[in-house]
Amino acid sequence: MKYFYLLFLFAASLQVSFGCTLDCSQVTCAQSFNPFDCPSNTLYSNTAALCGCCPGCVRLKGPNEECQSNTKLTFDVTNFYTVKGSIILNATDVPPVVASQECAPGLTCDNSRCSNSKYTCTTPDISNSKWSPECDIDGSHKAVQCKSNGADPRCFCYSKEGKRIFGSDWNTKEKRDKMKCQCARLVDNLKKNQEKDGYKNNDLTYHCSSNGNFEPLQCNRGMCYCANTQTGQPVSFVVNAQMWKTLPCYNATTMGFVYLKICDSRANALALIKKEMRYHGGNPITLAAPQCDPDGSFYAKQCDGNQCYCRSQQQEAPDKNKLLCSGDREKGGE
Ligand SMILES: *[C@@H]1O[C@H](CO)[C@@H](O)[C@H](O)[C@H]1NC(C)=O
Ligand SMILES: *[C@@H]1O[C@H](CO)[C@@H](O)[C@H](O)[C@H]1NC(C)=O
């Protein structure tokens, strides 16, 4: 008797997190929504809906909320790429949203409460009373932050830490809905990781559009494919780089005849040279690669050792820390 009671308890605790128990091999999932259709403050999961058998969106617990455990889901741009299954091009459904008792990624469940966030997004911003940023469930800044007041209503891409990164567009409903900033965040993360690993992998490039989304055609390490502009997932066959014009997403008007933009191709060539030199034991430090924006254009401020200049103004400045270029995001320029 006691045995059955325990079994019942076990089933009841599962019910809290998944709603029920089912043999997933008996379940067929008819999915007609995409990961990026998940509503604000939810995360896509392959095992969210129908007793954990089918994809859906999970609503996790935020800082200081009551919880039961930690989640295995990751809450960053890579979450999109780990999604199994392809993009559904004519998706029509609203995804199912399942409430979970787990803390959002990055938070830990201690004494039935999710911990404080390591991020500092607050509404309104403590350090800038004029700005009310949009915060994600883990206490970080949302990727897209829109400003509506003034004559310049625009949306910008932000890192989780609240730093403005590459990517912006006008704040209209249509543009705002399209803008996901996942490419901008991916490139920002890649850059941070490349700094950490001493630029051993800086031949890896993603191309972002000016609004921070992925460009529809991506080439990486000698291979090209058409990508979903919001998630970067491949939506076509993959071809050798020389064959990039045969891809269905190639457009001669907008893409021209060379894949790499001027800045990119210079940076890429130098990255390859450095790789070769490192391989042959040469000293690669003497070569300074140009700093490119994720859309392949030159970054507003270019630095070579201790010498910096603004590209638009072609102005040399002896002290790189004092130089402020228009378009220099890190210094707050627009
Ligand atoms: C998507 O479109 C294809 C072809 O137009 C069709 O066969 C398929 O059933 C559609 N899928 C959904 C989920 O509507
Ligand atoms: C290429 O892009 C231009 C500009 O966006 C567009 O007008 C044109 O229809 C596109 N061509 C093809 C073949 O898709």
From TrEMBL:
Assigned GO CC terms: basement membrane; extracellular space
Biological process according to GO: cell-matrix adhesion
Signal sequence residues: 1-19
Keywords attached to this entry: Disulfide bond, Repeat, Secreted, Signal
Top-level taxonomic group: Eukaryota
Subcellular location: Secreted
InterPro entries noted in UniProt: Dev_reg/Prot_inhib, Thyroglobulin_1, Thyroglobulin_1_sf
Domain (Thyroglobulin type-1): residue spans on this chain: 111-181, 260-334
Protein name: Thyroglobulin type-1 domain-containing protein
Record organism: Daphnia pulex (Water flea)
